[in-house]
Every structure is written in structure tokens, then in C-alpha cells.
Amino acid sequence: MNPIPRGELARKLIHITNLVIPLSYLWIFQNQITMVGILLFFTILSIFIEMLRVRSHQVSSFFEHWLNFMMRKNETSGNITGATWVFVGAFLTVLLVPNPYAVLGLIFLSVGDTVAALIGIGYPLVRIGRKTLSGTLSGFVVCILAGKATGLPVSDLVIIFGASVAMVIELIPSPVNDNVTIPLSSGLAMALISSAL
To answer: Of 65 and 111, which is predicted with more confidence?
Structure first.
């Protein structure tokens, strides 16, 4: 097993906590409009913090001291962080994807992307560009298991199809951040195939 860098491990541990978003939508804020409003608030707040990070010396110093070790090179140079993209992706997914597929898409982002990255770094079998087949397949399996574990009234075929889309999106390089494309694409794909079945 290859060692997982401390910064990447911390980043992915935070990433898995994003499960709070779909689980809150599933169990607490079940009204779509309410959840959209909550996510819009956090998206705007995150964008505001991003602006402060670039323009405020105090906020920039805080990030440099406490968070730079887990940030990607493009983020430390001023690009939007993955955390903000998570809120953008969650907002768009809840806004545009019907339930329960929005919940599943967001779960696939949290667990699938996290496991794919950690397994891909730790056990890098068959490289595909910057990703690995071992990571993608691990993420795919975990997405299916997590989707089944929700107990949502979605067929196994739809869950498997959604997990496939999520991990293909995670694997393929894209100019759009995968914190947006994974939940949105997999959620819409599940909604479309479900309506066709």
C-alpha cells in the first residue's frame, strides 16, 4: 500500500462529512424548496468566504496557517476551493434533480469520490490518466452499497446505473469541478432511466 498524504487524507475525511447534505434532505429538510433555500444560503456564504480569502489578509493568513496543507495547488493560487464547489453542486442537484435521485447522487459524490481517491492513491492498479481503475471500481461498489443502504424505493438497476455514471464522471477529466458534475449527472441519469423503465 502506498502512503496517503496527510493533506489528501484530511481532505477526503472532510469530503465524507458532506453526507450531512443528502442525509439532511432525506431525514430532516424533506421539502425541496426548504433544502434549496438552505443550500443557496451556504453557497452564497462560501462564495463570500472565497472572496475574503483573496482580498482579506486576515482570512488569507488563516487559510495559509490552518488549511493550505490540504488544498490543491490551483486553490492556493486563488481558484475556488472544493468545499465551495460541493455547495454549488448540492444546490444545483437539489434544484434540478427530483427526489430520491438527488439524495442518491449526493451520496455517490460523498462516498464514491472519497473511496475512489483513497483506494486509487493507496492501491494504484491500472492507471487511467490521473486516476486508477482500482479507485474507480472501489468507488462504484461503495456507491451501490450506500445506495442500497438508504432503503429508498429505487430499483437495483437504477442504483447501479447511477453509480456507473457517477464513477465514469469521476474518472474522466473535465473542466467542470466533479463536485458539481458527479451528483448532477448521476442524479439526472437515474431520474431519466427510472422514467423509461
So the answer is: 111
